[in-house]
From TrEMBL:
Designated name of the protein: D-aminoacyl-tRNA deacylase
Gene Ontology molecular function, alphabetical: D-aminoacyl-tRNA deacylase activity
Pfam families membership: Tyr_Deacylase
Superkingdom to which the source organism belongs: Eukaryota
E.C. number(s) listed in UniProt: 3.1.1.96
Length: 173
């Protein structure tokens, strides 16, 4: 197939949002204990909203990780573009089943075609693990203490996001 063209069924959809800081609540405040947050940023990085479709395989998570971490998404002041690994930047994955939405007649949106929740959670774990491996293999990322974090699959995602220059991109796999 030509470069960038997908063969077969859609397995995953992602929206990438450049950020300077982002965090997602992973545990609510309970019995006097503070809420817990997974947090990335201070410098630059990205939030990746992700959903998996029915039929998604573990193979797609490796393709996604390589693409998300090595595609030259970030514009530098010099005019050249770099990947999140080269930046280096932090990454926060947010499971987002609303990305399954497709418009249907009468101005409604239908959410269907998602994978089973237990499998989606497994695929998200695989994706995050593979991205962490890529970060661990980068000297630049190790020096910058780059982090790859994730929200909790199947839970409401409460996020806080700061952007200096919002850059949003849709990638499908």
């Amino acid at each position: 197939a030509p470069e960038g063209e997908r063969v077969g069924e859609l397995q995953a959809r992602t929206i990438i949002q450049q950020c300077s800081r982002a965090k997602v609540k992973i545990k609510p405040a309970l019995d006097g204990a503070d809420a817990q947050w997974a947090e990335v940023g201070i410098q630059e990085g990205m939030v990746v909203y992700v959903c998996f479709f029915h039929g998604a395989t573990e193979d797609v998570t490796h393709e996604m990780a390589n693409s998300l971490m090595t595609t030259k998404l970030f514009r530098k002041a010099t005019g050249c573009s770099v990947s999140v690994l080269d930046l280096p930047g932090n990454v926060l994955f947010i499971p987002q089943d609303s990305l399954l939405g497709e418009p249907v007649p009468k101005r409604r949106v239908q959410y269907k075609g998602g994978c089973e929740p237990w499998w989606g959670a497994q695929l998200l774990s695989n994706l995050v693990f593979t991205c962490r491996e890529l970060v661990a293999g980068s000297v630049k990322c190790a020096k910058a203490d780059v982090k790859v974090e994730q929200g909790v699959y199947g839970q409401k995602q409460e996020i806080v996001l700061n952007c200096v220059e919002p850059m949003t991109l849709l990638l499908e796999f």
